[in-house]
Each structure stands twice: as structure tokens, then as C-alpha cells.
């Protein structure tokens, strides 16, 4: 069963049950109170009849006339009888006898669908000059206080309860339908959004128009879930691109070295084979550590810091790029200060240099040249990489360290990268507490300056 139908049925059932209970209790209490009121009024009326007859008897000199008794009996619809102390009948109403009263009242009760009632009598003292000289007997039907007006009032009251029940039920049905739709419509929207997200449409978002706090929070939670899943999916795709980017450069280096050996440019001696082995080891480290290299927060990467000779590592890294540059007619010039030691992640340092040198080679013109310098200055190691390539436009300089950003030239160039290299470099350098700055003149070349603290 749909939630809207279930909610409507529950709401209507609750209303009907509440109305029935309320009407039943209210009807009983009001009827009881009303009957008690009529009973008290009837008793007061009988007391008043007794007082009036006693006063009339004493006023007339201890005499009552038959027409007076008959008038009272007819007016009050009762039977009147007066007896002395010896139980002898002194006066009696002749036009209102017991039999006639019973038939008349029976017809009235039957016409209103009520029970017939029983004839009863009640005794009152008959007083003469403050002394009881007999008894006054007043006979009546026990429910005679239910006059036509009283019966009409009770019937009207019962009908009003019935009409109120019907009206309230209809109103409750309308309200429940409106309320049900106001609750179920946004829930259906949220359900549909969740289904779309489950199917893989991670850009689907829930849009609800309601002021119900819980539904708004549920909608926000579903939207947050969709955003989180979309972000995770994007991170997964970026991570795959990172892996591809990081593996491409050492593989290209290995390929160029092997081609140089095959073409006879290099001899397969121990030195060159060691270079190939170094690249293979680097690939192994990349495969083992890529999962820790780029977390979602980028700066929160795992560092395996060791103290090593920065001058020697930079030199060996540059040597691996010499065949690549030589093959394309480019040159690498280096000025490295000896015996500079630093405490940092050695593999991450190689990633920095690999990315910058592989990035530079893409944008060198004919007779391209890259100059690399390393020096210690105060408590920092300063690495400067300068090329005479095509340079970077001024508008692109503030954006080049953003992940996946590529300049217009790199998009048009066949050798253009994925836009990850400089982002990776910036992330690693920041993780080590360093900085990287770039100066470039479009059409003349680019200069990268890396500052790494020696005591990190």
C-alpha cells in the first residue's frame, strides 16, 4: 500500500474513532445532565402545585372547588387527589383521571419514538393553619417531564452530533488528503532522486518545496550523499589520471634508453643498464606508493622522509633525461652545488624533477635549452629550472597549479599533458613545507624556482 493511502486511512480512522468516542461520551453526559435538569424542574413543579393548592385551600376558608382542582390538573397534566387523615377521598380531578393520562402520554411518546413510561403517584402533606389535616396525592407519568420541546431538543442534539460527525469526517478526509500529499510528494521526489543516484546518475538532486524540517533534512542528506558520491567518483577518475601521468614519464625514459641502445647510440654497458634498473625501481616504488601519494585532501599525503644527498639525487635524475633531450636536439645545462643534504621523501623529490623536466621538454623550440641550478641559501635549498621555450601567457600563470588546468597552447599542442603535472609538483612541495614560484615571458621562456627547507 502506498504511503499516501496508508496515511489517509490512518488519519481518517483516528478522526472517526475520536469523533465517535467524543460524541458518545458527550451525548451521554449532556442527556444525563439535561434529564437531571428536567427531573429537578418537574419536582419543583410538583412542589409548586402542592404549595398552590394548600394556599388556595386556606385562602378559601378550608374549601376547594372542583373547577379549581380540574383546572390545575389540566394545566399541569397531572392527576390530583386529596384525602383526609382517615384516607377518605375529599377531592379528586375528574377531567384528568389515571386512564386518560396514560393513553394521552402513550400517544405522545409513540409519536416521538420514545418509550411509553409508567404511571406513578407522589404524596404531599395537606396543611390547614400549619397543621397537617390530610395528604395531597399527585399522579403523573414518570417521564412526563419530557415535553414536546424537551423531546425536540434531545432529537436535535442527537442529529447535531450525527451531522457534526459526518461534516468532521468529510473535512478530515480533505485535510488528510492535502496533508498526505504535502508529506508524500516531497518524499516521492526524494525517493526518485535516490533511485536515480542508485542507477548512477550522481548529478541528480532532490528539490522539495516544504517547510517540514525532517523532510528538508532528509532531502539535504540525499543531496549531500549524491554530492559525496559524485566527488568520490571524480576523485577516482582523477586518481586514474594521476596514475597514468606518473607512469608515463619513467616508461618514456625507459623506452628512449632502450631505443638508444638498439640504435647504437648507447652501448649496453653497466652504467646504462644501471640507469635502466634505476627507472625500473622507480616504477616499482610508484606502483607501491601511488595509493598514498594523492589523497582526497591532496596535502595530507604520506611522506617517507630520509636524509640524503640532494645534489647527487638531482644529478642522477637529470642524467636520465639527457637521452630524451639529445634525441630531440635539446640540451640540459646544470650547475649543482655539491654536498647539499636534505631531509625529505626521496621518491617525492624525484617526482618533482621528473614532472618539471618532462613538462619543459614539451614546450621547447628548436635549439631548446634547459638550465638547472641548485644552491644552499641560509636554511633552504634553492632549485631553479629555466628554459627558453614558448613560455606561459600572463593570464594563465595564476592557474597553472590547478589540477587539470591546461593553457590554450597545451590544448592545441599534440604533446600537451593532462594538466596534472604542476598540480602534483605543487602538492608535494607544500607537503614538505616548501614553495614553488614561476616567472614566464610569453615567447621567451619560463623559470621555476623551488625552495625547500633543509631542516624539515
TrEMBL record:
Boundaries of every Histidine kinase domain copy: 242-456
Catalytic activity as recorded in UniProt: ATP + protein L-histidine = ADP + protein N-phospho-L-histidine
Membrane topology: Multi-pass membrane protein
Transmembrane segments: 7-30, 161-179
SMART domains found in the cross-reference section: HATPase_c, HisKA
Keyword Disulfide bond tagged: no
This protein's UniProt keywords: ATP-binding, Cell membrane, Kinase, Membrane, Nucleotide-binding, Phosphoprotein, Transferase, Transmembrane, Transmembrane helix, Two-component regulatory system
Matching Pfam families: HATPase_c, HisKA
Main subcellular location of this protein, as a coarse class: membrane
All residue ranges annotated as the HAMP domain in the record: 181-234
Record localization: Cell membrane
A GO molecular-function descriptor: ATP binding
GO annotations of cellular component type: plasma membrane
Enzyme Commission (EC) number: 2.7.13.3
Root EC class: transferase
CDD domains named in the record: HAMP, HATPase, HisKA
Keyword flag Ribosomal protein: no
The protein's name: histidine kinase
